Amino acid sequence: xxxxxxxxxxxxxxxxxxxxxxxxxxxxxxxxxxxxxxxxxxxxxxxxxxxxxxxxxxxxxxxxxxxxxxxxxxxxxxxxxxxxxxxxxxxxxxxxxxxxxxxxxxxxxxxxxxxxxxxxxxxxxxxxxxxxxxxxxxxxxxxxxxxxxxxxxxxxxxxxxxxxxxxxxxxxxxxxxxxxxxxxxxxxxxxxxxxxxxxxxxxxxxxxxxxxxxxxxxxxxxxxxxxxxxxxxxxxxxxxxxxxxxx
Length: 247
Known about the structure:
Helix content is 46%, strand content 12%. By secondary structure, the protein is α+β, with helices and mostly antiparallel strands. The chain folds into two domains: 5-100, Arc Repressor Mutant, subunit A; 146-243, no CATH class. It is globular, with a radius of gyration of 21 Å. The model is unreliable at 104-115 (pLDDT under 50).
């Protein structure tokens, strides 16, 4: 594997994870070992995956190892799969670590420098992102439509905590909501319940700040909601939230 750097991000999620030393240590180990390219590897790992072994290989007790894995999975940061060769960990999010920092190999004894794109060259990923943004901003959603209403709900709940939060393009958010409903099969009621829950959660409220992140983490968010109230149906949850004035 090519030698490179990983970046530890200054974020609320990082500070919160630091409070759990075992989970932070395990995530650091995964980030350091995770593959960054699809070049040949004998374990058949994909980009973002690392073979981490057992709790002894991670320097943790069995209980610390289990608790750390559970926390990273619960927060949607990593996924774990046992194999005959050992446990394979997959990074699911770059909120805390970014493993995609590359360096050019220097000739002789010169110091390594971070690779930069050619002067007039733009990364393909940036071009794709711009194309996607241009496509999304073409569609307008009328005020009062379910897509626009849910987008405005997410924005207003964020503003309750930060009044000067920059106003997003709500039509783009509404397009993401429309995809959640049309492509992903999520009902508006489910989406609304998740929005209200995550914006009241001490960890997720500062992580879900766009409709795109809401869509990406929806399954994880719903699983955590159900952990807290496993016997409560969606209808019962909505009724309770309405009684409490949360709707």
